[in-house]
Prior knowledge:
Layout: E1 15-18, H1 40-44, H2 46-50, E2 52-55, E3 60-62, H3 63-87, H4 110-134, H5 142-159, H6 164-172, H7 178-205, H8 208-217, H9 219-222, E4 224-233, H10 242-262, H11 266-281, H12 290-298, E5 301-305, H13 311-316, E6 326-330, E7 335-346, E8 354-362, H14 369-384, H15 390-400, E9 407-411, H16 418-424, E10 434-439, E11 442-451, H17 455-479, E12 483-484, H18 486-490, E13 512-515
Antiparallel strand pairs: 1-13, 2-3, 2-12, 4-5, 4-7, 6-7, 8-9, 8-11, 10-11
Helix pairs in contact: 3-4, 3-7, 4-7, 5-7, 11-12
Amino acid sequence: MATKKYLTQKQRTARMIIAAVLAVVILSAAFIAGGVLYSKHLNSGSSVRKQISFESDNYKVNNCMMTYYFYSDFYNFYNQNSAYLQYMGASLDPTTSLREQTSYDGQNSWYDYLMQTTANTVNGYLLYAEAGLEKGFKVEDMAGKIDEQINNLKTTAADTKVDFEQYLLNVFGPGIKESDVRDALELQIYANEYYAKIEKDYKNSLTDEQYETYYSENKNTLDKVDLRSYALSADVAEDADEATKNQAYADAKAEAESLKAAATSKEAFISWVSANLTEKNAELETPLTEEEIKEKAEAVSEAQAYSEGTDLSTWAFDAERKAGDVTLIDDGAGNYTVYMMEKTAYRVETEASRDVRHILIKTGEELSDEDAKAKADDILAQYQAGDQTAEAFDALAKEHNEDSNSLYEGVTKGQMVAEFEEWLFDETRNEGDTGVVKTQYGYHVMYFEAKGLPQWKSDAYNAMFEAYMNELTADWNTLYPVNVDSAALSAIPDTIPETAFQQEETTAPATTAVPDTAEVTDTAEVVDTAEVVDTAEDTTEAADTAEIK
Length: 549
């Protein structure tokens, strides 16, 4: 997804990922073609295919399918998180055994961590598939959807100048055939589309009255506040004696008390903070400019959310709170923060997200900036000369788009590059608007799909739907038991095929995050109960709705 910033924070735990697209590995042309010579027996995959790692009443996942799922999860995780892991000082070396490397949690091996993620995902596939089967759910043109994804892989194989059979060997190791990928895709797509149907039906069933009722019963968790704040911290060395430390704490607290007393108005708060920053500026190795001091002094943290049990939230969301009220919060570690209420609890009526289609024309060695723009303009002209519908735009995207995805749903501010967002979040934007936008990736032919729900309603929906799915999947775990073979899972190779190592970072697939259906615990011999890292593109919490800590 060329416009998407990679996720760089750990997402909510106890969730699983159902991926509806196959483009889990887009290998660069620089990968090592030819591969390693495996035995004919191993390449056939017959023995691996006989091992059943997951089984429910009507479905089985053999080890060839499981290997495909596991390696796909690995490639996605590695592509999206390797830079962040390096930044955090965690190591993940794809050239050595994953069992011999400790994950960032410091307890589980990377193999255990990633296998737990994959096991939870596959467990979810089976539960959704069983539930869908019982309800008579059918996927329209399943064969066509599988063919589309297989053809994407075949195109990638052709780009790397190897035949498809060799490509699968290079990427997924010995024994993985096209038929195995097709089997894995069929289960994956079926489960994902049944989840999508459940979500669509649930959303369509909700009335404004239900939203308002939920809001009235959960105001604190849905409302937001705007705050001014300024932190004063004790300046003391780690090895300082107790008396020195206590004095430093006392000095910082006295300074904070001074601000609290002086902050009789917004202007007084800003004036005190500005003077304090100016006074301390000379001590900084890189002094702040006057503009930076002004910006810091006047800063307001907007749309701050309630955080259960914290002193600040208890104060900020008190029903008696008024604009201009001031408090001082002591964190017990020498940090004293003075807060001024800018805007008392309110619900955010602006939409939380927007949906957009785009067609990316990349610039680079193959296409100059001028030629890329001309091509983008021509595609837009073709659209404008036609039916001018979302379907017509999608048809052009299938023909021309150089991104792995043409439709981005639920986009929130901070997820896309600046130029893309500037167009998308323009206040005048309406459904069906089009245009051409230039970013660092090239030229984007844009199509505005829709505005999302208001922020408060979106938050309410997410909470209600999560509760609904928790109840539903709790029943599924009883109705559709899934058997897990630990011995079969332990046979999944823990070393990534050396021919799959990428020479450059590539894009990760779009994914749909759904509530976890139950963490797999039958595989304790193989996998630990590591937290699942959700890589869904739509789950990163925007900075302007950060929880109050």
